[in-house]
Amino acid sequence: MQLVVNNTSKALQSNRFPMCTPVLFDCARLLGCAWKMMLIISLSVTICVNAQADGIATDGIETNSQRLGYFNNWTTTALLDKANEVRSTDIELSKTLLALLQQRSLDESQQAKLAYLQAYRLIMEGNYQESLRRFQVLAEHHDINVRLQALSYKLSLYLLDRDYPHAVNLLADILELLPHPQIEPQLYTKTIMGIGFFHNQLGAYQKALNYFERLNNRHLTERQQCLVSAHKVDSLVGLKKISVDDILYQATLTYCQQINENIITEGVIAEMAQFQVELGNYNWVIDTLLPRLGSIEARNYPMNSVDAYGLLAVSFYHVQDYDNAWLYGTKAMSYSKDFKLSESLHAAAGIMASMAKTHGSPEQAYLYQIDYLQRQQRQYAQTRAREVVRQQLNFELQNHKKLFAELNSHLSKQYSTLHTTNREIADVSEQNRFGMLYIVICILIAAGLALSVFGIRWSRRVVTKQLQLDPLTQVYHRPNTLEYFSRRWLRIQQRGQSATLFCLQLDQLTDINYRNGHTIGDWLIEKAAQVIKENAPHQSLIGRYKGNMFVMLMPNTSMHSLLQIQGRVIQQLNRLQPSIFLTYKLSYQTTSLLMNLDYQKDSMHNILARCEWMMADKANVDGHKLIVEDGNSMIANDAKATATTEIANG
User: Fold this and answer.
1) Membrane-spanning residues where (predicted)?
2) Domain membership flag for residue 200
3) Which of 295, 303, 472, 588 would you call most buried, defined as having the most Cβ atoms within 10 angstroms of its Cβ?
C-alpha cells in the first residue's frame, strides 16, 4: 500500500480529536445535501445528559477527599464504567477515579481497562510521549480487542506528532486485526469511524466523507455521533465547501454542547476559525473565540488553548489591534515547547517576530523560535525515518531468524523421515529380494507381450498397406482405387466442394514391351507414377486404374491449376530416357484427360469408365493428346502445349 500525504498546510494541522481510531483509505466522493439533511434530523433530537452514576448525583461533592470517600463504596466495574464515561468530559473526576482504582485488586481484564484509561488521561493532559509508551505496552496484550484499541491510539499519537512513516506501518497491523471474528462490534464501529479521521489528517477529505457516510446505518453512541459530525465539518473545511452559516456546522455545535462534549465543540469552532482566517474574515474569529476563551482556559485542554490564542493573535494583528495581538501571541508562544508542529502556533510566531521591535523585545528571539520549530520538524522527520529503517531491519532480521529456525526444524524432520524410510526400504529389500526378481520378470514378460502385440499390429498395418498398393508403382491398384475414390467423391459431394480428375494413359504400351522388353515397360510405368506423385497437390488420391492408365482425384483444385499440373507431367515424361539406351531415343506417347467434377452427378465407377472409353478412342493417334471436359463441353487437341494452356469454362 502506498499512501500519498497531502503536503498542504491543511495536511499539517494539529490533531483535534485524538480519541478516534484511524484505519485505511478508501475511494470517496463529495457528499450531497441528502445526507446532510438526514444528519440534521438526527441531531435535532435533544438528549439530556445527567451527571449521575447508578442513580446517585455527584454535584455536591467538591473536594478530592470527598470524592474519594463518595466513590469508595462503588464496585470496581462501576468505577471503570464511570471513569470511561467522563474520560474526556471531566478530566479531574477521571483522575480521581483512576487513583481510586489503582488501590483496588483487579483481574487481568480490569487491569487492561485501567491501563487504557490512564494512557488516555495522559493524552488529555498533553503528555503524548508517556501516553504513547503506555499504549505500546498494551499493544502486546494477548486480548485482540485490547491490542486493536491500543494500536489505534498509537496511530492517533503518531499522526499528532506527524510521524507518518510509523503511522503508515502501524496501519497495516490494524487492518490485519480488523477482520478478526472476535473483534467487538462497538470497537469495530469506532475503528471504521476513525478511517475518516485518518483521511482528514492526511488531507484526503473526500475519501473521509465517503467513510463517514458509511456510518449512517450503524448504531452510534451520542459521543460517536458528535465526533462523526465534527469530522464531517473538518472534511468540508478542508474542501472549502462550508460556511459559518452552514446548517451542518450549526447543528454539530448545538448537539455536541447538549451532550457536554465541550472539547470536541471547541475543536470544531477552531477548525472553522482557521478556515475564516484563511478567508480573511478576522472579525468573525475575534467575535467567536473571544467570548469562549474563559471556558477554554477553565477546561485546561492545551490543544484548544493554543489554537484559540494563536488564531486570536493572528486575527487581532490583521485588524491592526497590535496590543491584543501581542497579548495572545505571548500566551500562544508559551506552548512552543509542547506543540512544535501546531499550525496556529507557527502563524503566531511569525506575527510575534514582526511586532517584536515595537514592543521592546528582540526580534531575533521570535525568529529563533520560528527557526527552532522548523528545525524540530526536520529533526523529528529524520529521527523517525532512521527509526523506521532500524525497526524494518530488526523486523527482517527476526523474520530471517524465524525462517532459519523453521527451515532447520523442517530439514531435521525430513532427514528423520528419510532415514526411517531408507531403513524400511532396506528391510523390505532384504526380505523380498526374490519377490522383486519375480516382479521384474513379470514386468519383462508383460513388456514383451506388449511389444509383440504392437509389432503384430504394426506388421498388420504394413501388410494391409502393401496389399492395397500396386507393388510396382506404390499407388492404389484397381480395386482399392475404385473403393477409395468412391469414398472421397461421396465426401466431396456431401461437403459441396469443388474437385477435378486427371487421367493419364501410356499409349501403345504393348508395342513398347514387344520392341524393348517388359523391363523397359515396367520402368516407364514406374517413372510415370513417380512423376504424377511429385506433381500431385495436397490431399490428392492416385491410383492405377488399369495397366497403362493412372487416375488422380484432386479436391479444391481448379481447371487452371490442373492444366499446369498436366503440362509439368508431360514435360517431365518427355525427358525420361532409360540409361541402357545411349543413342537410341525411346519414343512413347500419352493421352491426358482433365475433367471438372463440379458438374458431374454420376458415381465414381461410371465417371472412370467413361474416362477410359474417351481415352481409348485417342490411343492410336500419334503424339501426346489432351482431352478437357469442363462442364457440358469437351475439347480435344494436341497436348504438346505447355502448362500455360488455358481453356475457358464452357
Assistant:
1) 435-456
2) no
3) 303
Span 397-409, mean pLDDT?
82
- What's the Cα-to-Cα distance from 523 to each of 134, 517, 620, rounded to whole Å? 107, 10, 22
Sign of the alpha-carbon dihedral angle for 86, 91, 94, 98: positive
Rounded Cα distance between 289 and 284, Å, is 8
Q: Are strands 549-555 and 625-630 parallel, antiparallel or unpaired?
A: unpaired
Q: How far apart are CA 543 and CA 554, in angstroms?
A: 12
Helix pair angle (185-202, 205-214), 10° resolution? 160
| Predicted local distance difference test score (pLDDT) of residue 521 | 85
Mean pLDDT of 443-457: 80
> What does 545-613 look like in DSSP terms, one character per residue?
EETTEEEEEEET--HHHHHHHHHHHHHHHHT---TT-SSPPP--EEEEEEEEGGG--S-HHHHHHHHHH
pLDDT score, position 390: 64
DSSP 217: G
Model confidence at 193, pLDDT cuts 50, 70, 90, reads confident
Confidence of residue 22 (pLDDT cuts 50, 70, 90): very low
**Could you tell me which residue, 176 or 37, shows the higher pLDDT?**
176
Element (H, E) at 541: strand 541-546
* Cell numbers representing residue 213 in the block: 457516510
Same domain, 436 and 556: no
pLDDT at residue 255, as a whole number = 92
- CATH no. for residue 532? 3.30.70.270
DSSP conformation class of 465: H
* Structural domain includes residue 572: yes
Cβ atoms of residues 485 and 606 within 8 Å: no
Cell of 365: 528571539
Residue 627 and residue 604 in one domain: yes
Q: Band of the pLDDT at 7, cuts 50, 70, 90?
A: very low
Half-sphere exposure of 499 (CA within 13 A, CB side): 24
128 is written with which cell numbers? 503524548
Across the chain, mean pLDDT equals 76
Residues 483 and 626 in one domain: yes
| Position 450 in a domain | yes
Q: Is residue 541 part of a domain?
A: yes
Residues 519, 454 within the same domain: no
- The three cell numbers locating residue 604: 465414381
Residue 417 backbone class (left: φ over 0; alpha: ψ -120 to 50; beta: rest): alpha
Question: What is the total count of domains within the chain?
Answer: 2
Distance CA 576, CA 587 (A): 10
Is the pLDDT score of 361 beyond 80?
no
Q: Nearest CA to 311 among 262, 275, 341?
A: 275
Which of the four pLDDT bands, split at 50, 70 and 90, describes residue 543? very high
> Considering 445, 468, 491, which residue would you say is the last residue of a domain?
468
pLDDT of residue 23: 32
Q: Which domain holds residue 581?
A: 475-638
